[in-house]
Amino acid sequence: MLDTEKSTASAWFRQLRDEIVVTFEALEDSHDKGPFSDARPGKFEVKETTRQSEDGSDAGGGLMSVMRGGRVFEKVGVNISTVYGTLGARAQQAMATRKGIPGMTDDPRFWASGISLVAHMQNPHVPAVHMNTRMFWTPHAWWFGGGSDLNPCIEYEADTAHFHGTQKAHLDPHGPGHYPRLKEWADEYFYIPHRKRARGVGGIFMDDYCTGDWATDFALTQDIGRAFLPAFVPLVEKRRVQGFSDDDKNTQLVHRGLYAEYNLVYDRGTKFGLETGHDPDAVLMSLPPLAKWV
Fold first, then answer.
1. Minimum mean pLDDT among 14-28, 63-77, 254-268: which range?
2. Residues 40-51, mean pLDDT to the nearest whole number
3. What interhelical angle do 228-239 and 157-171 show, nearest 10?
4. Quick check: pTM over 0.70?
5. 175 has pLDDT over 60
6. Using CA atoms, how far apart are residues 217 and 115, in angstroms rounded to an integer?
7. Of the listed 31, 120, 125, 130, which one is catalytic?
């Protein structure tokens, strides 16, 4: 049943969430020069989320932490959840890449836990970013997934290099093949077919990841999470002080439209969350506060 392992994973996602929330509020507090520095620092609003099975019984929940209108972050959500129950046919089709698991029809129980983060920034020079890591269990199979990717509307090659280099440094101890494989996976996953382009500059991503060794796979998942803050925070600190023009802001809003299209049309996590009855506000917190289509 992997009960100990499930508890360990759930606790880790909570620990990572706490570290990120503290770090992001510190970025708000320390922003004392440049655009928006005269505004009040943003704080996270925290709400418990709950989920019920069709018969009304408890089916898990989590914490939704959202900051709106900060002086660095225009909108950022950091959500954690641990949910369980049974998977209907539509939910089975929405869950990641693994479909038609032997025995799932007869015993469709599941358990899932993870952290999901999306940040949309005030200053168009600061890139938007996404990160999630998760564990999924059924009586018939278990796996990990997740990653992080950078979504600048105004790209800086040095920022892209730093983001990727930090991720590579965290993955290389697990074997030199991990970073190139997960980078390629991200390039494929975060591609928008109807626009014939990537939604950002990539990152790392894995889904349906299971070698059969839980401890080894969990350690890799943890380092995907640990890479996030050192990959992203220095970019925020460097770019948040830059001035920007109306054209820069317009570029940001148009790019956010691209981001919204991807999350509503293709993102598996969005589909799975809605199909399993999770709080829609938590599922859709990834959407930007303002976007533009031209």
1. 254-268
2. 94
3. 160
4. yes
5. yes
6. 16
7. 130
Nearest to 116 by CA among 267, 252, 239, 275: 267
Q: How many CB atoms lie within 10 A of CB 84?
A: 17
Tokens of 16: 């990572």
Within its chain, how far is the Cα of 152 from the centroid?
15
Active site residue 194: no
Q: Is 199 exposed, middle or buried (0-12, 13-18, 19+ CB in 10 A)?
A: buried
The predicted pLDDT at position 99 comes to 54
